[in-house]
Design a protein that fits this description.
CATH class of the domain at 60-137 and 188-358: Mainly Beta
Number of strands: 10
Family: Belongs to the catalase family.
CATH topology of the domain at 60-137 and 188-358: Catalase HpII,  Chain A, domain 1
Pfam family, one: Catalase-rel
GO molecular function: catalase activity
Strand content: 15-25%
CATH superfamily of the domain at 60-137 and 188-358: Catalase core domain
Order of helices and strands: HEEEEHHHEEEHHEEHEHHHHH
Protein name: Catalase
Enzyme class: oxidoreductase
Number of helices: 12
Largest sheet: 10 strands, antiparallel
Helix content: 25-40%
């Protein structure tokens, strides 16, 4: 934007404004004139100041920072930004709640989005995860239905616990994530005091073309802290932007939050023999089997200058890969590769990657043209198709996606593994007695409004299969019978 040396107010087309306090009217009491183009422009722009909020992850906070490599893992990936110890890459992160609207409270019980954009020299790499290592479902075809249950009833416009627990009770793969959500970790104390995860399995490929499977873990260096449910409810009423405010103030005061990034690495061949399907996002890999390996450190050291331009218009897609990092057959990830970028094309526009917050530091060369809000040179008079004989950009075979074997019949099939209870039960048994008590009380409180005992009993049976004490505690809290052993 050019600075007006005389500090004159202007219209959006640069003309000076003579009066910004009074509309132009036909006489002192006459109707407003349509020729007052400054008034019309102000009102018309005001009507369009909000882009549609995100369907999920609408409420969020963001910050700039950097990622620094602390351990050389170039034997596993050729990604340039991970190529050398000490290499720093600028990045932007957006934290968010999942289910609430843009004006909802920060301190609700909900997973937190943990979306990181690395501005690498080979293009942007987006790692779009949560503060939990697993998710409620494992196939993208169920995602719209799941999110509908977290939103408002179409008639009452109220949150609907009947839909929430009906869906979960009919989707036992959700049990692991439900247990995390209803535990102390369901309400982080601040955005600085929680871990982050890539959640999905991804593929790393090294310079020789050898691949491994990988999972990402961001470990907060502030320590994990969570909110008591009563304090969280109090803050929701008194300061619904508590997490947003805390993050901004911490960075503004020089208390820069940081996370250590670690990875789990699995040899490609292990995927066929591991006791859980490694691509099932409702499951974790045991750290005894695949220990955490330090990769680097993320530090947030700069607040956005403008919330809308940077946080609201920031767009992330798990399909924004760079050479050396690729997708896995994870069914949820496969759906997100399309859905996220498509949401941005709808919400922000086809040219969302040209906005300053999303624009790569690397040079872009492509044949995309036109579309709403094309505010750069639009390619000028350069060649606009490919192949061509005018010297336009061409593909580089060295950067082809690494091949992988597939087999089987094209069909709508589920994951082979249907043990939804072992890992949820293991998590329950890892908790202290006090933590287990709070978990059960949180679940009982959340399930009491459910109108049909059939739904409650079906969900109790899942808890019981994970651990008999777990299911018994919920059943007794709801005054319902304990399921019988099958």
């Amino acid at each position: 934007m050019t600075t007006n040396k005389n500090n004159h107010l202007t219209t959006s087309w640069g003309a000076p404004v003579g009066d910004n306090q009074n509309s132009m009217t036909a006489g002192s009491r006459g109707p407003t004139l349509i020729q007052d183009v400054h008034l019309l422009e102000k009102l018309a722009h005001f009507n369009r100041e909000r882009v549609p909020e995100r369907v999920v992850h609408a409420k969020g906070a963001g910050a700039h920072g950097y990622f620094e490599v602390t351990n050389d893992l170039s034997a596993y990936t050729k990604a340039d930004f991970l190529s050398a110890v000490g290499k720093r890459t600028p990045m932007f992160i957006r934290f968010s709640t999942v289910a609430g609207e843009l004006g909802s409270s920060d301190t609700v019980r909900d997973p937190r989005g943990f979306a990181v954009k690395f501005y690498t020299e080979e293009g942007n790499y987006d790692l779009v995860g949560n503060n939990t290592p697993v998710f409620f479902i494992r196939d993208a075809i169920k995602f719209p239905d799941f999110i509908h249950t977290q939103k408002r009833h179409p008639q009452t416009h109220l949150k609907n616990p009947n839909a929430v627990w009906d869906f979960w009770s009919l989707s036992p793969e959700s049990l692991h994530q439900v247990t995390i959500l209803m535990s102390d970790r369901g309400i982080p104390a601040t955005l600085r005091h929680m871990h982050g995860f890539g959640s999905h399995t991804f593929k790393w490929v090294n310079a020789e073309g050898k691949a491994v499977w990988v999972k990402y873990h961001f470990k907060t260096e502030q320590g994990v802290r969570n909110l008591d449910v009563e304090l969280a409810a109090k803050l929701a009423g008194e300061n619904p932007d508590y997490h947003t405010e805390d993050l901004f103030n911490a960075i503004a005061s020089g208390d820069f939050p940081s996370w250590k990034l670690c990875v789990q690495i699995m040899p490609v061949e292990d995927a066929d023999t591991y006791r859980f399907d490694p691509f099932d996002v409702t499951k974790v890999w045991s750290q005894k089997d695949y220990p955490l390996i330090e990769l680097g450190r993320m530090v947030l050291d700069r607040n956005p200058d403008n919330y809308f331009a940077e946080v609201e218009q920031a767009t992330f897609s798990p399909g924004s890969f760079v050479p050396g990092i690729e997708a896995s057959p994870d069914k949820m990830l496969q759906g997100r590769l399309f859905a996220y970028a498509d949401a941005h094309r709808y919400r922000v526009g086809a040219n969302h990657n040209a906005l300053p917050i999303n624009r790569p530091k690397a040079e872009t060369n492509h044949y995309q043209r036109d579309g709403q809000m094309r505010f750069d040179g639009n390619g000028g008079g350069a060649v606009y198709y490919e192949p061509n004989s005018y010297g336009g950009p061409t593909e580089s075979p060295a950067h082809r996606t690494a091949p992988f074997e597939i087999s089987g019949t094209a069909d709508s099939v589920a994951y082979d593994h249907h043990d939804h209870y072992t890992q949820a039960g293991d998590l329950y048994r890892l908790m202290s007695e006090d933590e287990r008590g709070r978990l059960v009380r949180n679940i009982v409180g959340a399930m009491k409004p459910v109108e049909r005992d059939e739904i409650k009993l079906r969900q109790i049976a899942h808890f019981y299969k994970a651990d008999p004490e777990y299911g018994t505690g919920v059943a007794e809290g709801l005054g319902l019978p304990v399921p019988k052993d099958e």
